[in-house]
Design goal:
Elements (H helix, E strand, L loop, with lengths): L17 H15 L5 H7 L5 H26 L5 H15 L7 H11 L4 H5 L6 H16 L2 H6 L7 H15 L9 H24 L3 H29 L14 H4 L1
């Protein structure tokens, strides 16, 4: 008797090819990346006040400061030294090789250029509760979910070069209190983000070979888009709608009283 080959049951979806999976991931960004959020349209088009831009930079600092924590969490879960060697560069990029170097230090140049005292920013004063909850949820996600999903959640970097180019051009053109020096963070990310995204995308395409895992990595990227979107929802609700910021959140002048 000849045994039938192991074929998918009728009606059972077949796994996507690597190229199809990439297309599905890119479609998530096309529909859900936070460049579509109204707050970003206002930010890039010069429609925000100086205080509203300060609120954005202050809250975004918490996200920036937690990125190396997120990446260290992922790094600790990797068994392959070759993969770890590549991934650890992300931590160096944000923390720097020494004091005053790296992406976090460059973000502090932005907040200082906007008139926010360094200690106020670094100590996390005035952060919106939703910012903190969203960013912490991201760190918990990469700690608790399977490694391939944690890696996939970083793939918003596939979409960041376009938003960075738009942001830098728009802010320099529309805000006289913004300079090229205060936006130095973004110049580095134009090369770092594509490098990181290419590696993570290749990892995910090789690791996600079943329908279940492919659906999970698409969901992971969707979750990360939601994390970024939720942060802008909070900013828009607190500082633009307008609505009173929640207790403990930054209000103009609060940094001088802290």
């Amino acid at each position: 008797m000849t045994l039938a080959p192991n074929l998918p049951l009728a009606g059972t979806p077949a796994p996507l090819s690597p190229d199809q999976l990439e297309a599905a991931l890119r479609d998530v960004g096309a529909r859900r990346y936070h460049n579509l959020h109204p707050f970003h349209r206002l930010l890039h088009d010069g429609k925000l006040s100086a205080d509203q831009v300060r609120a954005w930079a202050l809250n975004r600092y918490y996200y920036q400061a937690m990125i190396p924590v997120k990446d260290a969490t992922i790094l600790a879960r990797m068994d392959d030294p070759a993969v770890r060697r590549v991934w650890r560069q992300r931590i160096v990029d944000h923390d720097g090789e020494q004091e005053g170097d790296g992406g976090i230090a460059r973000w502090l140049k932005l907040t200082e250029g906007l008139g926010l005292p360094r200690d106020y920013v670094v100590q996390g004063h005035g952060i919106l509760p939703a910012t903190r909850f969203a960013v912490d949820a991201y760190v918990h996600f990469v700690r608790d979910r399977p490694l391939v999903e944690a890696v996939a959640s970083s793939l918003t970097e596939m979409f960041s070069p376009n938003i960075i180019s738009e942001r830098v051009a728009g802010m320099l053109a529309n805000y006289d209190f913004i300079s090229k020096e205060t936006l130095a963070y973004f110049e580095k990310r134009l090369t770092q983000a594509p490098r990181d995204a290419d590696f993570a995308l290749d990892y995910v395409k090789r690791a996600a070979t079943t329908v279940e895992v492919q659906q999970a990595v698409i969901a992971a990227l969707t979750f990360k888009c939601d994390v970024l979107w939720a942060q802008l929802d909070a900013l828009h609700h607190a500082y633009v709608v307008p609505c009173l910021p929640p207790p403990g959140a930054w209000t103009p002048g609060a940094e001088r009283a802290a």
